[in-house]
Amino acid sequence: MSRLATLPRRLALLRPLRGTTCTARSYSTASEQRLDNRVKIVEVGPRDGLQNEKNIVPLATKIELIERLAKTGLQTIEAGSFVAPKWVPQMANSSEILSHILTTPPPSPHPLTYSFLAPNMKGLSNAFSILDANPSSFSTESNPSPSKPSLEMAVFASATETFSQKNLNASIAASLEAFRAVISAAKETPYNLRVRGYISVVLGCPFEGYDVSPHRVAEIATELLEMGVDEIALGDTTGMGTAPRTKDLLNCLRSAGIRNEDVAMHFHDTYGQALVNTAVALEHGIRTFDASVSGLGGCPYSPGATGNVATEDVVYFMESLGMDTGVDLDGVAEVGEWISKELGRGNGSTVGRAVLGRRKRKQE
Ligand SMILES: CC(C)(COP(=O)([O-])OP(=O)([O-])OC[C@H]1O[C@@H](n2cnc3c(N)ncnc32)[C@H](O)[C@@H]1OP(=O)([O-])[O-])[C@@H](O)C(=O)NCCC(=O)NCCSC(=O)C[C@@](C)(O)CC(=O)[O-]
């Protein structure tokens, strides 16, 4: 059944927000009681990881990064961003990246989904022009093919007005209006693309501090789901999130009727809390987590924010809990070391450094 066909059922589960409180219910959902040990890791290194790099990373390096990551068992790779180049120059060659993925799909143990950000119709049209030039080279929901890559577009809203203005030059309401067109066009035939809806600064804003209402996040998430997004990605852009605040936020979303399977967590590790918050979300029943190889990243509009939680750290953490990510830890650690050297920076993954250090000692 296509994701679109399940939409009415999903929306039927969303209860009106007016009057809801953020108090946790005292019982678990059926999905939480199900023993599900599979976790999906969305690798955001090639987009979120690189977008903040000061020096323009050569196209060949970006493509090699994606190709190396594709071999490690990751299922989804965020590969680029169709935004205005004057705002984020590092993402200016996203058309070339998409084109390369379609014409020369990176070898991978299983079919991969590649995700690209598009905040408006201009960005989406730029992506469509690449798809139009390669019409039968990707898998769609109406015409699935295991031998071709799948594509996903992502829109990105904010939980605070100030961050929305800084990141998108628009109010939250205006940005949501622009996303409505993007979401419906992406879902139309012949593209039939999956769409992800980010919400940034859900646990703290660089401009408005800790005063971010979980109730407001739930409202925005509901609106995006009603527009047709397949998944909400909750961005702790600043890394200010703590365990109790993560729990409160997820309880609030649950109270609003938003299902765990429609939610992904996107943690940054600026305050070293990302894995603690990951544990809270995992226990809550979330099974999709964003991460960036060797902890690359930061948002150009979030001063002081450091990288995403490292993919290597999340994989090791999940394995320690008996969860199955399908990702080869050694393989992804090697990619982390390689890209760190390419960028001339230290490897930001504690686990990556430990895994490679242990291997080196064994060889000596
Ligand atoms: C949304 C806009 C475009 C509004 O920017 P604007 O300046 O208000 O847009 P505009 O409509 O006035 O257009 C200005 C110029 O940009 C062009 N333009 C307009 N749109 C596009 C486009 N899509 N692609 C290419 N060009 C574009 C447009 O054609 C025009 O060109 P000109 O006539 O001056 O030559 C701008 O604010 C923008 O690009 N923002 C992107 C910001 C961004 O990428 N932030 C980082 C990603 S979000 C993030 O990292 C957080 C996340 C997702 O990881 C989760 C988390 O951690 O929280």
TrEMBL record:
<dbReference type="Pfam" id="PF00682">
    <property type="entry name" value="HMGL-like"/>
</dbReference>
<feature type="domain" description="Pyruvate carboxyltransferase">
    <location>
        <begin position="39"/>
        <end position="333"/>
    </location>
</feature>
<dbReference type="InterPro" id="IPR013785">
    <property type="entry name" value="Aldolase_TIM"/>
</dbReference>
<dbReference type="InterPro" id="IPR000891">
    <property type="entry name" value="PYR_CT"/>
</dbReference>
<keyword id="KW-0456">Lyase</keyword>
<dbReference type="InterPro" id="IPR043594">
    <property type="entry name" value="HMGL"/>
</dbReference>
<keyword id="KW-0479">Metal-binding</keyword>
<protein>
    <recommendedName>
        <fullName>hydroxymethylglutaryl-CoA lyase</fullName>
        <ecNumber>4.1.3.4</ecNumber>
    </recommendedName>
</protein>
<comment type="pathway">
    <text>Metabolic intermediate metabolism; (S)-3-hydroxy-3-methylglutaryl-CoA degradation; acetoacetate from (S)-3-hydroxy-3-methylglutaryl-CoA: step 1/1.</text>
</comment>
<dbReference type="GO" id="GO:0016829">
    <property type="term" value="F:lyase activity"/>
</dbReference>
<comment type="similarity">
    <text>Belongs to the HMG-CoA lyase family.</text>
</comment>
